[in-house]
């Protein structure tokens, strides 16, 4: 038998599921024949808590943790191991791609010469592939190592080219492009060039520009878009003589011989280019999706080869028909699935395969509850309403095998007051999910919304909210519970944990309001993730992490901070300013962001292999004038707690340290009578007499750019595929936003307060409000407050 419960929030889905299980236990069904599955740990724990008193034999799992029980631990790789494996694969692919790109660049009239040189460089193994990648990606500037090593090894041609790309410019000014100057460079150029640090790059550009201004065909070549091709064109057109010398001097061939030889190379290059084109079409293209797919394939192959299982494989590879696996699941006769709207296809497969496998030999009951409107993990429901599709599948299955398929309807909400439900229906009528709720409770409700200026430094939104919390606790009465409000009756919902959450938290703490969740948790999400990024950047020079650090609002980088962070050292990591400007051409980054990159870049030039001490990181956070002071006030004890953990751990391994920190957050205690601050995602399934929704985010800005080794790789923002992908994502995220809003509002039982700036939330809410209160939407201004008793308006 299959029971399908699809009903609105608060209608008692979990309640009914738990009741069913209680009935079974009372009928003396063995606890071990009952399996409870869910999408999240929170939902699994919720069921467990509610049934603890009835049986300790019932099995509660998330779909993943259930599958995990069938694996041998030695095969499992954790997140960090899996990330490192992927990183290694991406690195390999990029190196491969760099070679192809390099060759592709060379397929012009003068390609053969350059390819020849590159071949020699490659054969002699003088430089690393990384050097050559740099060479491709950083126009004009040959890596110094190439120049130096070539000189040492006697392969002077590349040095010569490089020197002449500058020297010929100078030469064109002072008529010094004769054979002698060529020899001079050969003889004395080494020291000049090895001292030629990257700080002189701008100088080179300037000289090149000056040179270009006198040459018609390059008049329009600006600083930003000079490419290797331009440089070689300049060299080769200006220095025909030089070209001949290059052919003859090094290899001792005459012009015809060298021509033949180079033609031969040209054929090889052509073959490579065909390969490249195929690669371009099949694997890479300029689509981030295709690139990722390629990486995925390689990652999978690598795992297969080494018989590894990662988190995602857990659910894919279990074969329930396998004899050993079957032994473990034989006693199961009842499968209950909560929060089923969030299951991914893979998780559904597990549930259905398991059910079918058991059903093939024994009778098994499947009980599924969910609510499509509350599906808020979009990656899992990417391909549309999976929940509804699964209902049809199961109906067909039941029909085929003559099983009973029961659809249970739950009509009324046992959670929220009429006022809250009326409000949610009005709001949802402006979204893609119109709803119609009925209340089954008899207490009154209250809704209040307030719109604020979106200027983040304006603290009015915080002071208003704190005043509200104080008023609530001092004066308000909860009808359902017949008592005055306590802090623990208040749940603040936020969209994401970001720096404004951080500020909210500190304002609340400064006001002496207790918080149920220890700030360490929030600090963890807000700050420690950033620290991890800093560590990744420090250890691996992982530029994705760098980008994340820079984008992060918690840190406002001052020169001093940066200096402290990137201690004084030799220049071993370098982004040049023009490269940063190019980043802007390849992505949707703001000028402000680019300015930050450029600023940071100045400091990265004095980079160390890794900082040995965590103190600079903490000082950076704590003493930073903008955010540090909040952290100081809010979480000084948290910092000390964190600091102790750091000291205990020592400096053995950063990665292990951060891994340890991740786990250690579980060690922190909670305040029993404190307000709760949660993300909407983590509030699913919860309820609270009073809910405050706080959203000071401006409109979402979708950015989808892949970085590696400091370069924006995919996609090019002009690519049609990229534009389409963005549109599709925007569409999906809009639907997701509606569902998120639904989940947030329906957590409330009696009172709902919404504090928002002008954004999507306020658009929807105030439209609904204008309709209800018969006021023109133009009248909706900043500071507007909804009348307290919402229902009276209609
Ligand atoms: N039949 C009922 N009689 C009394 N109280 C009920 C009943 N059904 C549900 N409730 C109460 O209503 C509230 C909401 O129930 P529950 O959490 O099961 O709803 P839900 O549909 O699972 O909600 P959500 O979709 O938000 O997860 C709970 O406080 C629950 O105890």
TrEMBL record:
Binding residues annotated for ATP, in chain numbering: 7-14
One GO biological process term: recombinational repair
Comp. bias (Polar residues): 191-201
Catalytic activity: Couples ATP hydrolysis with the unwinding of duplex DNA by translocating in the 3'-5' direction; ATP + H2O = ADP + phosphate + H(+)
Pfam families: UvrD-helicase, UvrD_C
Organism for this UniProt entry: Candidatus Cytomitobacter primus
Name of the protein: DNA 3'-5' helicase
Keywords: ATP-binding, Helicase, Hydrolase, Isomerase, Nucleotide-binding
Domain UvrD-like helicase ATP-binding positions: 1-417
GO cellular component: cytosol
Enzyme Commission (EC) number: 5.6.2.4
Regions of compositional bias (Low complexity) in chain numbering: 172-184
Cross-referenced InterPro entries: DNA_helicase_UvrD-like_C (IPR014017), DNA_helicase_UvrD/REP (IPR000212), P-loop_NTPase (IPR027417), UvrD-like_ATP-bd (IPR014016)
A GO term, aspect molecular function: 3'-5' DNA helicase activity
Residue ranges of the region described as Disordered: 169-202
Superkingdom, natural source: Bacteria
């Amino acid at each position: 038998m299959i029971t399908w419960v699809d009903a609105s929030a608060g209608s008692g889905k979990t309640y009914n599921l738990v009741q069913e299980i209680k009935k079974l236990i009372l009928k003396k069904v063995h606890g071990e024949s009952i399996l409870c599955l869910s999408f999240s740990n929170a939902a699994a724990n919720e069921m467990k808590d509610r049934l603890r008193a009835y049986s300790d034999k019932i099995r509660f799992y998330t779909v993943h943790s259930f599958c995990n029980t069938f694996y041998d631990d030695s095969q499992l790789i954790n997140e960090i191991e899996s990330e490192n494996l992927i990183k290694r694969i991406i690195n390999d692919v990029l190196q491969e791609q760099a070679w192809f790109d390099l060759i592709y660049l060379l397929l012009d009239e003068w390609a053969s010469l350059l390819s020849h040189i590159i071949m020699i460089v490659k054969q002699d193994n003088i430089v690393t592939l990384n050097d050559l990648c740099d060479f491709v990606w950083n126009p004009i500037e040959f890596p110094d190592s190439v120049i130096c090593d070539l000189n040492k090894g006697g392969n002077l041609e590349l040095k010569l080219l490089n020197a002449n790309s500058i020297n010929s410019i100078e030469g064109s000014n002072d008529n010094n492009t004769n054979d002698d100057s060529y020899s001079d460079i050969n003889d004395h150029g080494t020291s000049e060039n090895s001292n030629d640090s990257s700080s002189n790059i701008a100088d080179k550009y300037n000289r090149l520009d000056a040179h270009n201004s006198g040459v018609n065909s390059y008049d329009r070549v600006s600083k930003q878009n000079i490419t290797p091709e331009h440089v070689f064109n300049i060299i080769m057109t200006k220095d025909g003589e030089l070209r001949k010398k290059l052919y003859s001097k090094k290899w001792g061939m005459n012009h015809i011989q060298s021509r033949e030889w180079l033609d031969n190379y040209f054929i090889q290059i052509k073959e490579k280019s065909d390969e490249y084109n195929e690669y371009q079409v099949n694997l890479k293209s300029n689509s981030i999706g295709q690139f990722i797919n390629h990486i995925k394939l390689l990652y999978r192959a690598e795992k297969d080869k080494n018989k590894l299982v990662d988190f995602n494989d857990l659910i894919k590879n279990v074969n329930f028909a396998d004899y050993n696996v079957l032994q473990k699941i034989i006693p199961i006769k009842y499968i209950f699935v909560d929060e089923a709207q969030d299951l991914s296809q893979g998780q559904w497969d597990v549930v259905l395969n398991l059910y079918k496998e058991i059903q093939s030999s024994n009778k098994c009951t499947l009980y599924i509850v969910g609510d499509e409107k509350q599906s808020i993990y979009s990656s899992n429901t990417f391909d549309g309403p999976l929940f509804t599709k699964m209902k049809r599948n199961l109906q067909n299955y039941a029909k085929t095998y003559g099983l009973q398929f029961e659809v249970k309807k739950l009509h009324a909400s046992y959670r929220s007051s009429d006022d809250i439900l009326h409000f949610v229906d009005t709001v949802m009528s402006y979204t893609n999910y119109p709803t119609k709720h009925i209340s089954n409770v008899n207490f009154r409700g209250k809704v209040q919304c307030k719109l604020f200026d979106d200027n983040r430094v304006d603290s009015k939104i915080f002071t208003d909210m704190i005043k509200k919390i104080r008023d609530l606790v001092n004066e308000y009465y909860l009808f359902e519970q017949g008592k005055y409000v306590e802090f623990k009756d208040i749940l603040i919902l936020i969209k994401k944990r970001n720096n404004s959450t951080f500020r909210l938290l500190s304002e609340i703490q400064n006001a002496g309001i207790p918080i149920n969740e220890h700030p360490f948790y929030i600090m963890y999400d807000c700050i420690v993730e950033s620290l991890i990024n800093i560590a990744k950047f420090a250890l691996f020079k992982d530029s994705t992490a760098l980008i994340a650090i820079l984008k992060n609002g918690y840190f406002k980088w001052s020169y001093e901070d940066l200096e402290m962070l990137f201690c004084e050292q030799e220049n071993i990591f370098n982004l040049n300013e023009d490269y940063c400007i190019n980043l802007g051409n390849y992505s949707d980054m703001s000028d402000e962001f680019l300015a930050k990159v450029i600023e940071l870049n100045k400091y990265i030039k004095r980079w160390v292999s890794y900082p040995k001490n965590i103190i600079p990181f903490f000082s950076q956070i704590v003493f930073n004038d903008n955010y540090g002071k909040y952290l100081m006030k809010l979480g000084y004890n948290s910092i000390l707690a964190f600091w102790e953990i750091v000291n205990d751990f020592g400096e053995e391994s950063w990665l292990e340290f951060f891994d340890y920190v991740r786990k250690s957050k579980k060690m922190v205690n909670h305040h029993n009578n404190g307000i709760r601050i949660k993300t909407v995602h983590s509030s699913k399934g919860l309820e609270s007499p009073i809910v405050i929704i706080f959203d000071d985010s401006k409109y979402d800005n979708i950015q989808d750019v892949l970085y590696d080794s400091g370069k924006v790789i995919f996609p090019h923002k002009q690519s049609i595929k990229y534009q389409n992908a963005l549109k599709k994502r925007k569409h999906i995220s809009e639907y997701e936003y509606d569902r998120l809003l639904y989940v947030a509002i329906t957590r409330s039982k009696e009172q709902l307060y919404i504090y928002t700036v002008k954004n999507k939330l306020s658009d929807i809410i105030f439209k609904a409000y204008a309709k209800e209160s018969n006021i023109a939407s133009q009248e909706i201004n900043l500071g507007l407050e909804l009348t307290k008793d919402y229902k009276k308006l209609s």
